[in-house]
Specification:
This is MYND-type domain-containing protein. The chain is of the alpha+beta class. Helix content is 23%, strand content 18%. A hairpin with a 7-residue loop joins strand 8 and strand 9.
């Protein structure tokens, strides 16, 4: 992760927009008012890698602790980070192969989910009335480094990734939820129960059963072993004894083992959205204040000086531009926009993916396009330490099917592209 001192400096930095033109395009609003707004992303021609950019209105995602835990339940279609996912389709979850890191075999850890429905006019279908995107990753930095090589392979015989994005969508009338809008008062209930989840992670389907108590369920042998070592062996004996007593005619019944979901998952947050253009307005208001510590023109000079310093160094120039844009709202963890020509805000110019580097949808064969990116600030909220082998990234970008295709499996895997911080850019962090 970037050191905190430069980020603190960027929080105080006021600078004019890098672009002359801005367009505000509306993005669908989620049923719960969570994410589906606008994030500031760059647009450029497919063959053009210069600094000329146009801006479009995009959504910034911020995390905060929910006022009520029930707001993150699946029947309220939340946007959230950390904890366990709120599965849109609670029954037909990704299978065992999909839920594990392809490099080390460990079950993937839930990062975040975004509720991003599309109207029938936008998608040409009614199956996108409810639509949620999920991101998972292995928490091993070693796997993430290996993932860097895998993501550049075109048409590999076997896809090997440690970061995965899934898309799930449902029509308004479906077996899991009411067709009516939720009340958001704590009384909303799903229309059907979901699959039994792993007793350790609470994330993936628990299709493996403890051979002793026959109650605890697991997504993998690894989580069964971890749970056993963490104390399930004691609980297991108690439940087994209770069951034996119950079978002998006692009124005592054995309770089902609880879902643990404690320290081994990242802290849980609600994702709140704000339009980045609001921060442009705030900056303009600040610059009108005669008591402003740093004038707008002074910030322009600071930016120009920084860019001149890195003249000829494309990566550091991109890194500077990236941080200047992020400094408008330093606490943002997510940038979202579903727009055909939208491009992510890239920290480095080297390793920039071209259209040919983004594989087409493996389900319908149509192109994938940018939809959202996750920023490294999320690691701070997850409590990831800034140590040598700690998990770190510059940005993680999700590309999804332009057609938002339907049919087939409930959770369709999309494409994640990761940029890591290069050694050259760390000198200016």
């Amino acid at each position: 992760m970037a050191s905190e001192e430069p980020m603190e400096k960027l929080k105080t930095l006021r600078i004019t927009s890098l672009d002359d033109d801005e367009n505000e395009d509306e993005v669908p609003i989620g049923l719960n008012g969570s994410l589906n707004g606008s994030v500031n992303l760059t647009l450029h021609d497919e063959e053009d890698d210069d600094e000329d950019e146009d801006q479009v209105s995009v959504v910034l995602g911020f995390v905060e602790k929910p006022k009520n835990k029930w707001t993150l339940l699946r029947q309220l279609f939340p946007s959230k980070a950390g904890g366990a996912p709120a599965w849109l389709d609670p029954v037909n979850l990704p299978n065992n192969a999909s839920c594990c890191c392809d490099l080390c075999g460990e079950p993937l850890q839930f990062v975040l989910q975004i509720y991003a429905p599309l109207t029938e006019e936008e998608s040409g279908k009614n199956s996108t009335f409810h639509r949620t995107l999920y991101m998972f990753m292995c928490n091993s930095m070693t796997c993430l480094l290996r993932d860097q090589h895998e993501q550049w392979k075109r048409n590999p015989e076997k896809v090997m990734r440690s970061v995965k994005v899934f898309r799930c969508q449902l029509s308004q009338h479906n077996p899991f939820y009411s067709s009516e809008k939720p009340k958001y008062d704590g009384t909303d209930k799903p229309s059907a129960a979901g699959a039994t989840l792993c007793s350790w992670c609470g994330t993936w389907k628990g299709d493996k059963i403890c051979g002793s108590c026959r109650k605890a369920r697991y997504c993998s042998e690894r989580h069964q072993t971890t749970h056993w070592k963490s104390g399930h062996w004691t609980e297991c004996r108690q439940w087994t004894a209770s069951q034996d007593i119950a079978e002998c005619g006692s009124k005592t019944t054995s309770a089902a083992p609880p879902i643990v979901v404690r320290n081994h998952v990242w802290p849980e947050f609600e994702i709140i959205n704000e339009d980045e253009s609001e921060y442009d307005t705030e900056m303009s208001d600040d610059n009108m204040n005669a008591n402003s510590l740093v004038s707008r023109s002074k910030n322009d000079e600071m930016y120009t000086s920084m860019m001149d310093t890195f003249k000829g160094d494309a990566d550091n120039r991109s890194w500077t531009s990236f941080h200047v844009r992020i400094s408008k709202a330093p606490n943002q963890v997510l940038r979202y926009l579903r727009e055909p020509k939208a491009k992510p805000l890239l920290p480095m110019s080297s390793g920039r993916p071209s259209r040919a580097d983004i594989p087409n949808c493996t389900h319908c064969g149509k192109p994938r396009s940018f939809e959202f990116q996750v920023l490294p600030q999320l690691l701070y909220y997850f409590g990831v330490e800034n140590e040598e082998n700690s998990l770190d990234w510059a940005t993680i970008i999700a590309y999804t099917c332009e057609d938002s295709c339907e049919g087939g499996v409930a959770y369709k895997e999309e494409f994640a592209f990761v940029q890591l911080v290069t050694q050259s850019t760390t000198s200016v962090r």
